[in-house]
Amino acid sequence: MQAQPQAQPLRGFRTLLRKELLRFSKVAFQTVAAPILTSLLYLMIFAHVLENRVQVFERLGYTSFLAPGLVMMAMLQNSFANSSSSLIQSKITGNMVFVLLPPLSHRELFSAYVLAAVLRGLTVGLGVFLVTAWFTRPSFAHPLWILSFAVMGSAILGTMGLIAGIWAEKFDQIAAFQNFIIMPATFLSGVFYSVQSLPPFWQSVSHLNPFFYMVDGFRYGFFGVSDVPPMLSLAVVAGALALTAALALQLLRSGYKLRH
């Protein structure tokens, strides 16, 4: 009797992950090179204008202060773009059925989409860091903090992209989600300034923005200084990741706007 082939565990997860990785790597000029160029333009413009006019932290030039913020901003925006665009394209073109037909659990779907988003975010972030390193003197006060906030921040935005992709029914809704939520939250998170320079009211408003804690904790990993205690940033970011992951998993498990 011929032996039956054994089922390979996580085969579906690996296949979907590979598909998502190929999706952005095949057009790396658009998905990786373009964001790096955009960040470089931000650095050149803001550094040229403000380098000798703004002092953020003691013995830290503005260009050095700005670079980690640009790295984190690029990672967050591209992690969101990866998962959200993948889902909405699949829904509109009608090939979402080929993702849902295989016996993939909601956890495998979640893991594949978010992990691919994290990898794209980290790839873009590394590229931005290497480019900005030519203009700064990068330091690594706490490398594990850098890695932790890079991974968790990218995972949060990858999960938010997954939620947006599930909810949206057309590209306009994804664009609105990105333009009215993601972009303002990243630009107002302290990427270009220290929140300590703001009036007390706007400092309090900034502290309600979870993106601020991602940027501030990430910057702490480079310089060992931050606007708020790094443990507070770690707790807020970890809590945000847990909440968004729980919501995305529930949406996938229920099949909301995917199976119904």
Which structural category do the helix and sheet elements fall into? mainly alpha
Count of helices? 10
How many strands in all? Answer: 0
Based on Cα principal axes, name the global outline.
Answer: globular
Helicity, as a percent range: over 70%
Verbal overview:
With 260 residues, this protein is an all-alpha fold. It has one domain. Helix content is 73%, strand content 0%. It contains ten helices and no strands. The chain has helices spanning 11-25, 28-50, 62-93, 97-100, 106-132, 143-167, 171-187, 200-206, 210-223, 230-254. Helix 3 (62-93) runs antiparallel to helix 7 (171-187) and helix 5 (106-132) runs antiparallel to helix 10. The N and C termini lie far apart (42 Å). 40% of the residues are buried. Mean pLDDT is 90; it is low at 1-5.
Structural features:
260 residues, mainly alpha, 10 helices, 73% helix, 0% strand, disordered N terminus
Question: Strands, helices and their partners?
Answer:
Elements: H1 11-25, H2 28-50, H3 62-93, H4 97-100, H5 106-132, H6 143-167, H7 171-187, H8 200-206, H9 210-223, H10 230-254
Helix pairs in contact: 1-5, 2-3, 2-5, 3-5, 3-6, 3-7, 3-9, 5-6, 5-10, 6-9, 6-10, 9-10
Give a summary of the structure in a few sentences.
With 260 residues, the protein is mainly α. It has helices spanning 11-25, 28-50, 62-93, 97-100, 106-132, 143-167, 171-187, 200-206, 210-223, 230-254.
